[in-house]
Fold this protein.
Amino acid sequence: MTAPKRRIAMFDSGLGGLTVLAQLRRQIPDAEIIYAADTARVPYGDRPLEQVGEFARDIIAHLLTYEPSLIVIACGTSCSAFDALGYPPSVVTLLPIVDCGVVAAAQATKIGRVGVIATAATVRSGIFERKIRELLPQARVTSVGAPKLVPLIEAGNWLQADADAVVAGYCTAFGEAGCDAVVLGCTHFPLLRPAFENALGPGVSMVDPAFICAQRAAALLADNASGDGSLTFLVSGEVEPFVRHATDLAGPIAASARVRAVDFSDEVKQPEHR
Ligand code: DGL
């Protein structure tokens, strides 16, 4: 019997998952990747967790029709919703990005003062504090909700000088608390890496969960058969701006993608194989 292929499904509310996609592609070049972007309903971070949980369940049901070997939850807010409400049943492993961020943060801090910057919904859920303290019981965690960043990025303004000032404003709390590591708990935020580097300064580790996430995915799929290295975007909102922004941000990785317009709230009927 041949092993199932390295076929990874992943999802985010929009462009944020590209930070995870880039690492997955680097570490598992032959993976077939199906990336769902729920741009019709972005941002998730201002919504109640119950609603985010419903959206994320619909997306997972849709992604399962592609028969992936793994589903990466490349959205911290969706992880927060599932953590609070329970994960949906799934025949394949679900890999939550928050768990990867927690491990990366615990590795990065030397003094146990950890900052978390994430969506308002994620911060309200307390998921990072709880999980970081499971690994580092003495940790002091400072959390900041940053509702302005996702709309800025989705509008294509990730290079705008304004991002610097907004990010710097959010990061003052980390300096005051003496954090030596700050985890970017929303997958959109590493798209503003230069602004975060400026705001945090050289003495603070900026923790992007994507690297460990891709390492875990690679380990989980080590015994699977090679994929064809393809990428498919499933986009619920307007396709053209998403593809343009994704290509600007992820370059050749995104440029060759197949693209499908989908409605994740549609009832899932038939498997949709290519
Ligand atoms: N990128 C997602 C996250 O990691 C969602 C951001 C949003 O839609 O507000 O939380």
